[in-house]
Write a structure and sequence with these properties.
It contains ten helices and no strands. The chain is an all-alpha fold. The protein has one domain. Helix 1 runs antiparallel to helix 4 and helix 1 packs antiparallel against helix 10. The chain is rod-shaped, with a radius of gyration of 34 Å.
């Protein structure tokens, strides 16, 4: 016969069962914290980096590309307007005898050269720019003789000016309409770059939810240690709570600030594009409003300068990323070290 369990043996067995359950609970808390930390930090770092990459893409390519197309179109239209004025009022009456239109034509050529480096329409955009450069060369070959060479031959002058007009504005194949097509593609691409997409929103939701689970599990572990182990404050888990709260707030705030700048830049680029494509501006009616085209050029130049300042890189963007990376390591290692220490110190002999 088995000996009857005494009061002491019952207490010992109950204590052993309680200790075993506490160990399993601590192990479960540790597994949940590690999993939540890994998932939330992966989602947070990837999502934060995506927004910062979008800001860099806007700053180095998207914004200069959209600005460049608008400025180039306005420079071409202004050059043609100056050439028409020189023909209408006599070349001798224009200071510099063609210097104004030549300056604008040179600015347009420089703009096309810069666009080849920053355009965001890929191979299609490079093809459009190559074609536009060729047509622009033909345009220059028509507009220059029309304003300088055939001053005394009205018929040839009119023919050259007509050729230049067609090469500049002919629907579908002219320089300005081809640039319109490129600009349309770039505006759509710019909108995608500067907008927080569904995947990014989902990434942030996963990150914040993971940090919430981590925080609640850490609080539960603190309560468990206090109730079953008699340890009210754990020096490893308390910092974990503070780091988790900082991770839930600071990178999200930085992302919101960056996205606000991207939204402002997108709206500014839309206004720049609208100004360059305004039919009243493109009509170049020198009789009714001779300064409309020049005013549009000045606005685009001024808005572009403001935009570059708004998109300039901020030092805190990189520091926030590396700070989040370090905090992510802490939020993973601190609870792992704290709970593993309790398991080894208090429950190692009950393992298994």
């Amino acid at each position: 016969m088995k000996p009857r369990p005494t009061h002491w043996t019952r207490a010992f067995r109950a204590r052993g069962l309680t200790g075993s359950r506490t160990r399993r609970l601590l192990e479960l808390h540790l597994a949940v914290i590690v999993l939540a930390a890994l998932v939330s930090m992966t989602a947070l770092l990837v999502s934060y980096r995506e927004v910062q990459n979008a800001a860099g893409e806007m700053r180095t390519h998207a914004a200069p590309a959209v600005q460049g197309v608008s400025a180039t179109q306005l420079a071409l239209l202004r050059a043609h307007q100056e050439a028409e004025v020189s023909v209408r009022f006599g070349i001798d009456e224009v200071v510099g005898a063609g210097a104004r239109y030549e300056a604008q034509l040179s600015a347009a050529g420089q703009g096309l050269s810069r666009l080849s480096d920053v355009q965001i329409d890929g191979e299609r955009g490079r093809g459009v720019l190559a074609t536009v450069t060729g047509v622009l060369t033909s345009y220059s070959g028509s507009i220059t003789p029309g304003t300088v060479k055939y001053v005394d031959d009205e018929l040839m002058q009119r023919q050259k000016m007509s050729e230049a007009e067609r090469q500049l504005n002919r629907p579908g194949t002219g320089v300005v309409p081809r640039l319109d097509v490129l600009q349309d593609h770039q505006m759509r691409r710019m909108g995608r770059i500067s907008t927080l997409g569904p995947l990014q929103v989902t990434g942030w939701a996963v990150a914040e939810l993971g940090l919430l689970v981590l925080t609640l599990t850490t609080l539960s572990a603190l309560w468990l240690l206090r109730r079953r182990c008699g340890r009210s404050l754990d020096p490893w888990l308390l910092p974990t709570l503070l780091v988790a709260v900082a991770l839930a707030v600071v990178p999200l705030w930085a992302t919101a600030a960056t996205q606000e700048r991207l939204d402002a830049a997108r709206h500014q680029l839309v206004r720049i594009e609208d100004t360059a494509s305004d039919p009243l501006v493109r009509s170049g009616d020198t009789a009714r409003d001779p300064d409309r085209l020049a005013d549009a050029q000045q606005y685009v130049t001024r808005a572009s300068t403001e935009l570059r300042g708004g998109l300039a890189a901020r030092s805190w963007q990189s520091w926030t990323y590396y700070g989040a990376l370090g905090a992510g390591a802490l939020v993973l290692l601190l609870p792992a070290a704290g709970l593993t220490r309790r398991l080894n110190a208090d429950y190692y002999w009950r393992a298994g």
